[in-house]
């Protein structure tokens, strides 16, 4: 294996960002295993179109799993682990878009003479639209005494008994003691690089596609803290030529439902600030 890294993706109704997410990592993984769990938008169409490119057809393993209830969702992740032949796998969601330098930093870490068992990355959490984001400290993830917008994204299969457990949306990875890997003895390295996270934005071209997924409904009113500086550089993949049917990431297009959501979000933001 060239980079000794397999990508794991589980997606549903992600057609706004899935193309950018896949294209931001596809050249850096040896395989990309993608399971769709019942998309009703163009997510599957986009994945299959990428696979029609000879450059990627043998690299992507794609399966349409259909609807999966949240209590059994972890089995999907377990299956991806069992299909992984590399020493490492990287979890990439359909709303995560990587900078080139960030994914290269990951590759360098697992190729090093003393590679970590786990790799954590910081993320830039967009909210409202792609031009706004939340403060790093707004999120409450804690890794190696660092609290904020960061999470483990790369796991070594050399972690004894590594497996997935938990309901959809809060599933995690555990070791042979059934202890969360980040709380056990396995060393973690926090990277300097980050990725763009669009989890709080509309992810399906049809907002009803987001409404189908329970935990996304809770994110609709998420507010932002800052606006990106006009010189801010987004991940490189957002600027490259894309198929005509792929969503323009810098579009200001807003339907009436989103207008209502923005209005409610503004009210919530004012109340929060007192």
UniProtKB/TrEMBL annotation:
<dbReference type="InterPro" id="IPR029044">
    <property type="entry name" value="Nucleotide-diphossugar_trans"/>
</dbReference>
<protein>
    <recommendedName>
        <fullName>Glycosyltransferase 2-like domain-containing protein</fullName>
    </recommendedName>
</protein>
<dbReference type="Pfam" id="PF00535">
    <property type="entry name" value="Glycos_transf_2"/>
</dbReference>
<feature type="domain" description="Glycosyltransferase 2-like">
    <location>
        <begin position="9"/>
        <end position="116"/>
    </location>
</feature>
<dbReference type="InterPro" id="IPR001173">
    <property type="entry name" value="Glyco_trans_2-like"/>
</dbReference>
């Amino acid at each position: 294996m060239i980079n000794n890294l397999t990508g794991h993706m589980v997606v549903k109704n992600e057609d706004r960002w899935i193309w950018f997410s896949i294209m931001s990592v596809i050249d850096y993984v040896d395989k990309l295993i993608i399971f769709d769990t019942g998309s009703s938008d163009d997510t599957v169409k986009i994945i299959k179109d990428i696979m029609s490119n000879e450059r990627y057809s043998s690299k992507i393993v794609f399966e349409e799993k259909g609807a999966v209830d949240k209590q059994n969702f972890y089995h999907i992740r377990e299956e991806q682990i069992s299909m992984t032949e590399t020493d490492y796998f990287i979890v990439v969601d359909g709303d995560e878009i990587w900078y080139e330098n960030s994914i290269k930093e990951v590759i360098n870490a697992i190729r090093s003479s003393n590679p970590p068992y786990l790799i954590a990355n910081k993320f830039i959490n967009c909210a409202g639209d792609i031009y706004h984001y939340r403060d790093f400290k707004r999120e409450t993830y804690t890794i190696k005494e660092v609290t904020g917008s960061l999470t483990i994204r790369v796991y070594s299969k050399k972690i004894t008994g590594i497996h997935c457990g938990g309901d959809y949306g809060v599933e995690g990875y555990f070791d042979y003691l059934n202890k969360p890997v980040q709380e056990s003895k396995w060393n973690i390295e926090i990277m300097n690089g980050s990725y763009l996270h669009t989890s709080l934005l509309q992810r399906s071209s049809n907002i009803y596609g987001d409404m189908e997924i329970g935990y996304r409904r809770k994110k609709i009113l998420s507010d932002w803290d800052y606006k990106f500086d006009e010189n801010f550089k987004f991940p490189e993949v957002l600027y490259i030529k894309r198929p005509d049917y792929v969503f323009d990431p810098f579009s200001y297009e807003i339907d009436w439902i989103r207008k209502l959501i923005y209005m409610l979000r503004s009210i919530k933001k004012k109340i929060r600030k007192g």
